[in-house]
Design a protein that fits this description.
Strand content: 15-25%
Helix content: 25-40%
Largest sheet: 12 strands, mixed
Oligomer: single chain
Shape: globular
Length: about 425
């Protein structure tokens, strides 16, 4: 398998900057007709330009002060209260991503990104685990979808996570002040992730072969079952305490007793083996089951690890579920670190493809770092539901604009090598069609 490269530099030459204005006008024209009013499109253009400015905080007020003909109140109203349709714009965005970096072997990546906040008035803010600070903190939590192929990577979609207390009756006034839609119901982060994937699949603009995610999503059986039902191949990291069966156990419905309601649900038959923890399975594998494989080239050199692969049966509600690949990845460090992935890929899936996808979660982290470091993803000051989603939508567009610009100018761009295209295995491919 060809080696995986590091992230390409996210910078522009003077020549690139000189052509930025003309490029941005053409890019904005792709979306301008989707705004309800012409002035909304004009403010979107200014906001995008402001997000791209170097050395400037990316709040609506500061952007308005640094772009031509900017008006602070109008810019704040456009972001915080503007009644424009994010969904239509993000659907168009997916079409453009398909043009720029779309591939039959593309991978969707699901991950969360958190935003520390002071006070209690911003929508969704609560004391919760914050990845940005690495502890329980006052923050907002977002769920994001990214796309990576051999051509590049960028963000696709976003959802704001609302903690359960925000949906309680006691917090109704706060919800109304922040403009949370009345029909909003509590949804877990995996449920929000599935909404985005389902929407993307339903639209059919962007081809992908895989979904990759970390433990926060891989440890959620409902999320994995959604992907299985939709015939989407996934490679999901799971905790090492996850249990599987190495052989499918026998099940059956117990016979009815003389009294009481007859049982209707299958159970394990007496004497059947219990499932095993995946880390215990890894410890029992013979040395010949492990092989050192190249994952990608990193900033500090090649990233390699030892891999082993086992076919197993998932545990679902204490009963046997679908057949799966269990992918074990062990670092070469001392002591070695074990990571475990589950995949619903077919039994004939090449192991090199599973290795490739296991190393493809880093692009979304790079997108977050680029979006926060260069595009003000975390510098917004709006407190409203609509404002948070508007800001994130335009940051996503700004990120893809720079991706397209870099591809066009080939400034420091290095292709992400991919193995032989898997091409969606289980579903029609819109690219090949």
């Amino acid at each position: 398998m060809a080696p995986m490269t590091t992230a390409p530099p996210f910078d522009l030459s003077e020549q690139d900057v000189a052509s930025l204005s003309a490029e941005l006008v053409d890019y904005h024209a792709e979306f301008a007709g989707l705004f309800f009013r012409r002035e909304q499109g004009r403010w979107a253009s200014k906001y995008l330009a402001g997000l791209l400015l170097p050395g400037v905080r990316k709040s609506a007020e500061v952007i308005a002060l640094h772009v031509p003909d900017g008006i602070v109140r109008d810019m704040q109203r456009f972001i915080g209260d503007g009644a424009w349709d994010d969904d239509a714009i993000l659907q168009r965005h997916a079409q453009l991503v398909a043009r720029s970096v779309g591939s039959c072997s593309g991978v969707l990546i699901v991950d969360g990104s958190d935003f520390p906040k002071q006070g209690k008035h911003s929508v969704g803010v609560a004391r919760q685990y914050c990845g940005a600070s690495g502890k329980i903190d006052n923050c907002q939590a977002g769920v994001f979808l990214a796309y990576v192929s051999g051509k590049g990577y960028t963000l696709l979609d976003r959802r704001l996570y609302l903690p359960q207390e925000w949906l309680s009756k006691a917090w109704q006034a706060r919800r109304e002040k922040c403009g949370v839609p009345k029909a909003t119901e509590f949804k877990t982060k995996p449920q929000l992730a599935w909404e985005m994937i389902q929407k993307l699949q339903r639209q059919g603009h962007l081809c992908f072969a895989w979904v990759a995610c970390d433990e926060g999503f891989g440890n959620n059986p409902e999320f994995l079952e959604h992907l299985e039902s939709a015939q989407i191949s996934y490679l999901a990291e799971v905790p090492v305490a996850t249990q599987v069966w190495l052989e499918r156990p026998a099940t059956g419905v117990p016979p009815a007793l003389a009294t009481g309601r007859p049982p209707s649900r299958a159970r394990l038959l007496p004497g059947e083996a219990h499932p095993q923890r995946v880390d215990e399975i890894a410890a029992q594998l013979p040395a010949r089951a492990w092989r050192t494989r190249h994952i990608k080239d990193g900033e500090k050199g090649a990233m390699v690890a030892r891999f082993a692969f086992v076919r197993a049966v998932a545990v679902r509600d204490k009963l046997p579920g679908p057949d799966l690949w269990v992918v074990f990845r062990q670092s070469l460090s001392a002591p070695p670190e074990l990571k475990v992935f589950l995949s619903n890929a077919p039994a004939e899936m090449p192991q090199r493809e599973l290795v490739r996808v296991s190393g493809l979660r880093w692009p979304i982290e790079t997108c977050f770092r680029q979006a926060k470091g260069n595009l003000g993803m975390d510098q917004y000051q709006t407190r409203s539901w609509r404002g948070w989603h508007h800001h994130m939508t335009l940051v996503i567009l700004a990120h893809h604009f720079l991706v397209r610009l870099r591809l066009r100018h080939k400034k420091g761009h290095r292709r992400l090598p991919s193995s032989k295209p898997v091409c969606c295995w289980r579903r029609p491919c819109p690219i090949r069609a």
